[in-house]
Write a structure and sequence with these properties.
The structure is a homodimer.
Chain A: E1 2-3, H1 15-22, E2 27-28, H2 31-36, H3 38-46, E3 51-52, H4 61-72, H5 85-93, E4 104-106, H6 117-127, E5 132-136, H7 145-159, E6 169-174, E7 182-187, H8 188-191, E8 201-205, H9 211-221
């Protein structure tokens, strides 16, 4: 039984608890071990092999590539679906699921490299009244909602497409799926200094709000 | 412990199995009982109450309204997330999750009433290269992929936006989340007569395909 936690992190449980429930020893693989696929496929060639990932499997491109590899080597695979941030974030925030446009990721900017495609995705969605789910980067550490908002304001200052102004309403979520998720809705200039609890965090930029969505954000998100 | 199965159907398990796992008797509520909320909220005012729904809770507007009602009556609620077709469909089909635009639903047409907003949602997504997840109507029975494709071709004939031609590639999924899901990719004129197994079904209209998405559709969906 293998697992990887680099495409996301476990929240609300531990490796030990998982081993207890499954009554199996779990070997955690590194990013390169997952990407090469060798360890998992070698095991799967000789016996029944499980590979645990956080969230719904095959949401990450790496897992899609791995399943294709397995098929081409004649290894039969089966997917057991799981709760994913892709449905839990709309669910927890009360924002209507069918009003979410394309999602995107906010990467950590670095010296001379400041990607902004997520900003344009959010802008396109907003033009059509749609919400945007933004995943936050995971490197040696996980990006917080606060950092993500600063990055958005910086890009807004340059591009000026009216996507992320100081008074824009946004929704920050933390530890979704755990017993104590954080759900805060408000203006960017208020949320930028709020505490969203332990990472992982995600950020939602709402489009047009239906009155029931607005009511939900007020009742549960403190808008 | 209550449950409803009118926003979707159970697949891959039975009510009896659920009762066995939970070691509790489950009362299945009708649509009107869920929408009025009375039965559940009355029970919740006097004791710990569970409400089971298929998929991730709060994806359906009815559940959002119910949680707002509970809050306003001073009843504390907690959401336990679950696998949803919203992430399982991208997962199973190998289509990249972040490339899904807004989703929509195909209703059963009736005498003098033939809604087509889902067609325009698919058209808007397609213009941007994005995929569209289409939920199929649930009335006294559940719509099949085959019926959905016929409806789409009918609308295409009228509107002509080049969304659903005979040779357009589509993906049909059946019984997602069960041990024997159906996943077939192909041209509409081929898929319209194929068997997608027991309902529930969903339909995906892909936008531009990345080479890895195409490979996955070929390896697993028989494209």
């Amino acid at each position: 039984m293998f697992a990887e936690f680099y495409t996301s992190r476990l929240s609300g449980t531990t490796l030990e608890k998982l081993e207890g429930v499954l009554e199996k020893k779990i070997t955690v693989l590194s990013r390169s071990e997952v990407e090469s696929g060798d360890v998992i496929l070698k095991a799967a060639e000789t016996g029944k092999t499980g590979f645990l990932v956080p969230g719904d499997p095959l949401i990450s491109t790496t897992h899609i590539a791995l399943r294709i590899d397995a098929k081409q080597r004649g290894i039969e695979t089966r997917v057991v679906h799981n709760t994913s941030i892709n449905s839990a974030a709309p669910g927890l925030s009360g924002l209507f699921n069918y009003k979410f446009g394309a999602s995107s990721s906010i990467p950590f900017p670095s010296e001379g490299y400041r990607p902004d495609s997520f900003y344009h995705v959010a802008s396109e969605n907003k033009k059509r009244g749609l919400h945007t789910l933004l995943f936050l980067d995971i490197k040696d550490r996980l990006m917080t909602v606060n950092e993500a908002l600063k990055i958005l304001l910086d890009i807004e200052r340059d591009k000026g497409l009216n996507v992320a102004r100081n008074d824009s309403i946004v929704v920050g979520l933390g530890c979704v799926g755990s017993e104590t998720p954080v759900f805060i809705a408000g203006r960017i200039n208020d949320l930028i200094s709020r505490d969203f609890g332990p990472v992982p965090h995600v950020l939602i930029m709402p489009g047009e709000l239906h009155f029931m969505e607005e009511e939900y954000l007020k009742e549960f998100g403190g808008l």
